[in-house]
Amino acid sequence: DPLGPVVDALRAGIGGTAPEARRMPAPSAAALLLEAVALGTLNRPGRRRSGWPQAYAAAAGAMALVTLVAYVFERAALLPLAPLTAMSPLAAAGLLLLSIGILLARPDQGLLQPFGSRGPGGTLARRLAPTLVLLPFGVALLSAAVIRVGLGQPGVALSLSTALFVLLLMVVLGGTVRALDDADTRRQAVVDELAGERDFVATLLQSLSDAVVVYDHELRVIDVNPRCLRLFARTREELIGVRPPYPWERGPESSPALAADGDDTGDRYVYRPDGSHVPVLAALSPVVDATGRPRAFVSTYVDITERKRAEDALAERAAALEQANERLLGSNRQLEEAAEFKRDLMSMVSHEVSQPLSSVASLSELLATDWADLPDDTRLELAEKIDKNTRRLTGMINDMLLLFRLDAGAVSARRASVPVGEVVDTVTDSLPATAGIVTSVDPDLCALVDRAHLWQVLSNLVANAVKYGAPPVEITTDPRPDGVVVISVRDHGPGIAAEHLPNLFDRIGRRGADGAKTARGSGLGLFIVRHLVEVNGGTVRYEHAEPNGARLAIELPRAAQPVADKLPSMQQ
Fold first, then answer.
1. Counting Cβ atoms within 10 Å, is residue 45 exposed (0-12), middle (13-18) or buried (19+)?
2. Whose CB among 3, 9, 19, 533 lies 3.0–4.6 Å from 538's, allowing a Cys bridge?
3. CA-to-CA distance for 145 and 535, rounded, in angstroms?
4. Residue-wise over 128-153: b if at least 16 C-beta within 10 A, else e?
5. Peptide bond into 547 cis (omega under 30)
6. Could you give the CA distance from residue 259 to residue 296 in angstroms, rounded to a whole number?
7. pTM of the full predicted structure?
8. Residue 110 carries which DSSP code?
9. What confidence tens digit (pLDDT) does each residue in 62-77 have?
10. Integer Cα distance of 572 and 30 in angstroms
11. For residue 147, what pLDDT is reported?
């Protein structure tokens, strides 16, 4: 026997050298070896699982099944397979059960793997496998029973059993074909339904008025609609399959990857290949599966160009309204200032004008009533007082008229080269000698100014110093190297309190609750001074004199001496 050495080796490896072990049949030893290999390779860690363990178990089970069939039909009926039927029926049954257990231990791989498939192959395997395995065995049992009972010859029994097997197999095949046909019909119905849904989704996507981009779970573009192509100014081939960063978006803040775990909405820009950009309202939403994990993403882009234009127009309109509101507020402030000026002016007129006017009225009445009884010197004194008060009223009226013209911006300067010393002499000559005026003026110094304006300015400053300060009142000039003439009027009185300095050159001085003036004079003089100096291109400022007194200094542009003064006299 050429298999003798192999069988002896198997017997020795399984049972040792004992005489009992050498009596183990070769089929039993081979079947046990296959079962051992199947069990040993069934769960090997670190390697890919395969169907070899189930194949080993199936081979051992086939050997056991042949033994059982031979036992049923008697060994003489299966003479060609006699070497495989040497094991006992009990050992064969045990090996068959062990093989079945190994096959069922891993039904998801190996020979039983097709049974778990949901396709046509799985249906065919689940229907035909039991038939091909159990039906021959049942037919064999039926034939053996017929032969042992003596109801027929073995050949007739085998023929009838074979015919019965074929008939049953055809019935099973027919049912299988019918089941496969029903399954194919159902599958086709599902496919048609899915195709209809796909077409509906595609039609819906194509008909949307907003630009839509569909991404897979890796944010790769898998579909776009026509509106998206028009908005992006790109072809479908340029968009399908694109991964981040996307060419139509710039900056990490506009990447859909930031919204992979939720919705992302905001104003962005879509950049086109020609360099232009379109403002859009972008929104990215995930499409989750049954486990809640995103399986796709849908991004929508709404063109908001018109909305942006409307917003810009609205912003411009709001800015224009704000400017108009500011102008209205300015006009309102001007009206309030005008109303305040009117109140202060009426208060000043009632206070300042009433005194000289009442004095003129009373003196005139006295002079007219007692003219015959009054001596000449008294008449002259009363007339002089009337003249003084009249001049005072005339000056106040002229100041108010000039104030109105300054407030309306109707005063202009006729600037010329004016000798400062001449104007100073004119101002001091009109004052009494008791005023204590001291001048230190360069007779050749000239300023570029309106002569009448300079006389008005110096008259107001000197009168203010004489009335509210203390003698001596000093008038000095200082020609600076930068082409500016500084004319200062200083008194030696107490000066001006610090709280009155911010409003010193305002239009009208404010009054307290008792009616007393909080600044020098009525407020018209210094206001007129400031405006006349500014009209002539100069400035005026207040300085506290040391150790006491007030100094008001005006700065005017310096001018050359007039040509007429430089020419020799024609009489010489």
1. exposed
2. 533
3. 142
4. eeebeeebbeebbeebbebbeeeeee
5. yes
6. 12
7. 0.41
8. G
9. 777 777 766 665 544 4
10. 162
11. 62
Q: How far apart are CA 546 and CA 525, in angstroms?
A: 24
Amino acid at 145: A
Confidence tier at 17 by pLDDT (50, 70, 90): very low
Single-letter code of the amino acid located at 195: A
Structure tokens at 101: 């257990």
438's tokens: 């001291």
**Of the candidates 206, 49, 179, which has an alpha carbon nearest to the alpha carbon of residue 121?**
179
Segment 533-560 mean pLDDT? 89
Question: What 3-state class would DSSP assign to 199?
Answer: helix
| Tens-place pLDDT, residues 475-485 | 999 999 999 99
* Angle, CA 6 vertex, CA 4 and CA 12 arms, to 5°: 100
Nearest to 300, CA basis, from 219, 222, 205, 203: 205
Span 160-207, pLDDT tens digits: 666 766 676 677 666 666 777 777 787 788 777 777 766 766 676 776
Amino acid, res. 325: N
Identify whether the C-beta of residue 499 lies closer than 8 Å to the C-beta of residue 477: no
How far is the C-alpha of 488 from the C-alpha of 461, rounded, in Å? 9
> Burial, 59: exposed, middle or buried (Cβ in 10 Å; 0-12, 13-18, 19+)?
middle
Contact between 7 and 32 (Cβ < 8 Å)? no
Q: Rounded to an integer, what distance in angstroms lies between the CA atom of residue 469 and that of residue 463?
A: 10
* Confidence check: pLDDT of 520 > 70: no
